[in-house]
Amino acid sequence: MTTAPYLALRPTGPGGPPAPVGREELLARLERALHTRGRALLTGPAGVGKTELALAEATRAEARGETVLWLATLPSDREIPGASAAALVASVAATVHRPGPGGGRRRESRATDKAPARPESSAVFDELPGPQRTAVAMLCREAPLDAGGWDPIALRLGIAQILRTLTRRGPVLLVVDGVQHVDADSADLLRFALHLAPPALRVVAVETPEPYGEADEPYRAPHRPDDPHAAHLWVPSEADVLLVPPLHADEIAELLIHHRLPSRMAGRIHRASGGNPRLALAVGRSLADARTPVHHAEALTLSGRARDLARQLLGAAPLAVRETLLLAALALRPSSTLVRRAGRPNAEADLAAAERAGLVSLAEDGSVTFTAGLLPSTLVHDACWAERSAGHAALAEVVDDPVEAVRHRALATDSPDEDLAAEVANAADLARRRGNSALAAELALLAAESTPGRHGTRRIARLVDAAEEAARAARADLAMRAATDLLARDAVPADRVRARLAVLDTAGQGLTGLDEMYVHAMEDSEGDTALRAAVQLRLAVKYVLADGDPQRSRTAAVESAALAASMGDPRTAAQALTVQARMERALGAPDAEAVLAQARALELAERPLGIRNAAQILTIRHALFDDRLTDARDELNALLPLVQRRGSVEDTIELFSTLAALESRRGACAAALSHAGQSLALTLEAGLSPGPAWYTLALAETAGGSFARAASYARRSVQASEEEGDRVFLSRSRYALGRVQLINGDVAAALETLRRVQADERAQSTVDPSMLRWHEELAEALLAHDEADEALALLDEVRPVAARLGRSTVLLGCDRAYALWLAAEGRTDEASQLLTRTAEAFGRAGLPLERGRALIALARVERRRRRRSAAQSALQTAASVFERAGAAPWLALACESPAGTVGEPPGGGSGSEEALPALSALTEAELRLARLVGQGASNQEAAAKLYLSVKTVEARLTRIYQKLDVRSRAQLATALRP
Q1: Sign of CA dihedral 310, 311, 316, 319
Q2: Cα dist. 239→61, 200, 235 in Å?
C-alpha cells in the first residue's frame, strides 16, 4: 500500500521544499545518512509515512538539480523474475514522469511501464557492449529470449554500467519504494550494481517488514530464511536503517489541520490511529463526512474506509494470530500469559508475529498493548457474538482479579440476570474505592444493562448511577450511552435531569448543539429546587462559553446560588458563586472579589470535588490578572501535589495551564514551556478539545520558545475553538495570534486579527481590561498602520476603566502604547521619558518581558531622536533582561540590527535610518510605504501589499514627500539610498 502525500506548509530550511508533518528531524537524519554512507533504509509499518519521507527527499534532490529515479514495486512483482530490474531500466528511458508536490517531476517506473527511449538517455544504452545491451534488451522484453535465457554476467555488468553512466552526468538518487516486493533475481542484480556504483549514486530503500510467512510456516520470514539479508539491496547497518515512528498526538493535530479536517478530536483520533498518519486521516475524514457533527460526548464515527484500513492491517495476519489478538482485545489487562491460559497455547509466538507487524507492542513482563485503538475495536466489531462470548467466558476463568472476572462473566452472556447485575454493581463500587473511576463507570453501565426488564425501577437507578459515574471519570461516551438508554425509558423527571447533567458535565468546551438537552433539563427540573439550581449552574457556564453572554451567565449563576442556598447545598452554591464572581470581574462590577470570597468560604467548609471552575483556582487567576504573581505562584505550588495525587485529569490540566500562564507572565520561560507542554499532552491523551491547551502553549512559545510556533499554536486554537463554538477561547486565541503577528511585523494581519478580538469582547460586554490585554496591542497595531487618531481614542477609552478598577499594570501597557503615539506625533522627548518610566515600573512589578519590550520601544524612539548611544544602551539592557528570563525569541529580537524592532519585519531597515537622519521624521507606516514605492511599486501595488485603499496610499505619499522635501518617485528612491 502507498499513502497520499501529506506535506506541511512550512519549509525545512531556508528555501527548502516542505517536509512531511512531524518529520523534520527524521528528514535531516535521512540526508545525513545519504551524505555520509550513500544508502538509507526507511522501515516501519504500513501507513506510517515512509513513502512521503522518501518523496520529500526526492523533491529536495530534484531542487538541487539531481537525477531522481523512482522505482515503485507491486506485490505481484515478487513472482516475476527480473520485474523490478526491468522497471528500473525502463525508468531511465521512460517518458512517464511522476509529479512532485511543488510542480517538479521525477522519473518513475513500475514493472509494467513501456515507453520509447528518450534521445538524451539513448546514449546510456549505446555505450553498453553488445552482450550487455542484448541481455538488457532481453530483460526488458525488447529482444526475444534465447533458449538459455539472458547471460547473467552480461546482465549484471549491464545494469551496473547504466547506473555508472548516469552518475557521470551528475548525482543520482535512486528510490526503491517497496523493497520487500523486489523479486529475487532483481534483488541480486541490484545488489551487484550498487556494489560497483560510484559515490554519486545514492539510494533510499523503503521497506514495510513482512512478519508472516507462508501458511505452513506462519512465523518464518518469507524471503530466504537461510540468508537474513537476501531481500535487501545491501547489508544494512545501524547507521543507515531509519525506523519511521508513529506521529505524536500534537503532530496528528497538525496533520488534520493541514488536510482541513476537524482538529478538536485530535486526541481521540490519535488514540484510534496510534499515530499512524494513514489511519488518522481515514478517521478524520470519517468525522468530516458524518451527516451531523460528532459531539465530544459521542463515539467516533468510523466510515468503511477507516474500518477497511484496520482490516487490511489485521487481515495480513494468519487466522491463528487474529484469534489470539481477539482474546487480547477482549481483556482489560492483556498479557501473553493470560491469553495462553485462556486457550491459546501459541500465544507468545502469535503475539510476537503481531508485534513484528506493528499491531501490538509487548513489554518485558508480557503485557500487550495495541498500537492503535482502531485495531482492537475492529477485532471486536467484526467478531460474531459466539466468538466474543467464548472469549469472555475463557478469560473469566483465568483472570486473577474478581472485579475483572465479574466483568467478563457479564459480557459473556446476553441474558439479563439480576444476581449477575448485583455482582457487577458491587464490582463497580469496589473499582471506585480503588480509584479506578473509568472501570467503575464501565461496570456501572454494565450492571444497568444486565438488569432484567421486570426490574425497571432498579435498571433506571443503575443507569443514573452509571451516567454520574461516567461524568466523574470524564467518560463522555459512557455518559451518553447511559443517558440515551435512560431517556428511552419511563424515568421520573429527576432521573432524566441527573442523566442529562452527567452528559453536560462531560461535554468539555463543546456545549454548542446541546440546546435541546438544556431545554428538557429545565422542563424536568420544574418543582425540584435542588435540581433547578444544578441546571441553572450548567446554563451559567453555557451562556458564557457557547453564547458569549456574560450578562445572562451572571443572572443564571445568581439564581443558582440562591436556590442552592435555600436547599442547604453549599457545594452547588459555591460553584454558582464562583461563576458569578467570574462574570462580575469580566463585567467590571466592583463587588466581584466579595462574591469570590463568599464562594471560597463555602469551599473551605464543603470541600469541592475538584479545582476546575472552583473558587480556589479562580482566586489564583484573579491574582494572575492583577499581576500579583507571587501570591498566585505560592497558592499554585501548594495545590500542585494535592491535585497530582487525588485530582482528575481535567484538574491537572487546569493546574498546568494556569502555571504556564503564570510563568509566561513572570518571565520563567522554561517552566512555562514545560507546564504548557504537560497540559497539552494530558489534554490530547484524555481526548479533550485541544483549543485551550494550544492557547496556553501559544503564550508560552511567545514568551520563551518561537514566535513562529506561537503563531501556529494560536491558529490551531482558533480553529479548534471555532469547531467547538467556544466563544471565550476563540477570543483568547485570536488575541494570542494578533499579538505574535504584531511582534513579527505583520501589521496588516495583526490589525485584522485584533479588530476581531475587539468585536468579540465588545459583543460579550467584557469591561475589565486585565482579563485579556488586547487594547494596548491593538493601539500599537493602529499606530503602525498610521491610524493614530483611532489608537488614541482606544487608549482614552480604556484608561479610565483601568484606573477605576485599579488595574495598574494595564495602565503601564497603555503608557507604552501612548508613548509610541507621542513618537508618531513627533513628540519624541516626551515619548522617551514616558518609556523610561514605564520600563522601570514594569521591572518593579516583576514583569521582565514587559520591561524588555518597553526598552525595545525606547530604543526605537531614541533612534528617531538620533541618540544612537542611548538606543544601543536600551537594546543591550533589554537583551540582558531577556537572556536572564530565557526569552529566546525576544532576545533574538533585541539582538538584531538597530533597525529590527517590534512591529517592523526583521531586516526591514538594515540600519539605513542611522545613515539617513531625514527618515527619522517618518512614521513606521510611512517608512514601509516609502520603501515599497522607492523600489518601484505603483500606488495600486503598494495598496494591495499594505492592505490599504489607493486613496490612503496617495494621502500618505503626500505627507512623505513633504517630510522628505521630494517631488517625485525618482527623488524618493534617491532619498532612500544610504
Answers
A1: positive
A2: 21, 19, 11
d(CA 564, CA 577): 10
pLDDT in tens, 137-159: 888 888 888 777 788 898 999 88
Q: Identify whether the C-beta of residue 550 lies closer than 8 Å to the C-beta of residue 764.
A: yes
Rounded to whole angstroms, how far apart are CA atoms 168 and 201?
A: 10
Q: How far apart are CA 714 and CA 709, in angstroms?
A: 8
Residue 764 burial (10 A CB sphere; 0-12, 13-18, 19+): buried
- In 342-401, alpha helices (H): 347-356, 374-382, 385-398
pLDDT in tens, 916-973: 455 666 776 777 788 888 888 888 888 777 767 777 788 788 878 877 778 888 878 8
Kindly state the greatest CA–CA separation across the chain.
103
Buried b (16+ CB within 10 A) or exposed e, 583-602: bbbbbbbeebeebbebbbeb
Task: Let me know: does 963 contact 922? Beta carbons within 8 Å.
Answer: yes
User: Rounded distance, CA 716 to CA 408, Å?
Assistant: 42
Q: Where are the alpha helices (DSSP H) in 169-318?
A: 184-196, 249-258, 266-273, 277-289, 304-315
Of 381, 191, 422, the closest CA to residue 299 belongs to: 381
CA pair distance 885, 694, nearest whole angstrom: 22
23's CB contacts (< 8 A; 6+ apart) are 49, 52, 53, 56, 244
pTM (2 d.p.): 0.76
Mean pLDDT of 879-896: 91
Amino acid sitting at position 564:
A
Q: How far is CA 480 from the centre of its chain?
A: 26
The SS3 of residue 369 is strand
Amino acid at 644: Q
User: At a CB cut-off of 8 Å and minimum separation 6, what does 726 contact?
Assistant: 509, 510, 511, 545, 546, 689, 691, 692, 720
Q: Which of 662, 657, 581 is nearest to 624 (CA)?
A: 662
pLDDT tens string 23-43: 999 999 999 999 998 999 999
Q: Which of 691, 634, 692, 683 has the alpha carbon at shortest distance from 662? A: 634
CA 99 – CA 117 distance, rounded (Å): 20
Q: Is 102 helix (H, G, I), strand (E, B) or coil?
A: coil
- Among 96, 85, 95, 152, smallest CA distance to 122 is for 95
Number of helices (H), then strands (E), belonging to the chain: the values are: 47, 11
555-612 pLDDT, tens digit each: 999 999 999 999 999 999 999 999 999 999 999 998 999 999 999 999 887 666 667 7
